[in-house]
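Proteins fold reproducibly. Take a tokenised chain:

. . .
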Amino acid sequence: MNNTARSFAYVEPTIVSLLILSSFIYLLNIARSIAHRLFYAGLVGEILVGIIYAAPLSNILKTEWEQTILDFGYLGLLLLVFEGGLETRLDFLAVKSNLFLSSVIGFTGILTPIESFAMGASLSATSLDTTFAILSSQCKYQLNKSRMGTSLVGAALLDDISRLVIASVIEKLRYLRQQNLPWLISKLIVSSIVMIIISV
């Protein structure tokens, strides 16, 4: 058995690669600043730069670069959601008026896009991480600690839970018999509600 471990070979990056990566990082910051000044949502500028540089349009970034950026982005996403969970005033959701407002916003996001089951699964999320990113970018107003911010977080949480339930049902639908479907749906909903109660 061959136990020789292969080491990662150092290859000096080309000038073109360095220019592409540095321009990508630079334009991310510029686009974020411009979008923040125009409509207070710097995340939109970053998304546009990503669309331009990645495979859908110009395909400037290499596939392995995109995978690395995706991995780092996922790590950043976890940290962002963790930070948002620490800073959000979930005790505001205990107030009936705030809970009602969150439910109305959340159910609007769930029910409006569902024209078909599969489309509803992909479009029914407000995206908790996007909500946290936009609220945290307005740090001087402390929106994440306001009634509006808490209502938006509650709505995004409700949307994401429903999307996960729908996506799980769609994924396992072909393997399930009809009598097991209610058990699967109720198990997902109950576990999500228990996690929310424990968190609050």
In short: The two ends are 54 Å apart (CA to CA).
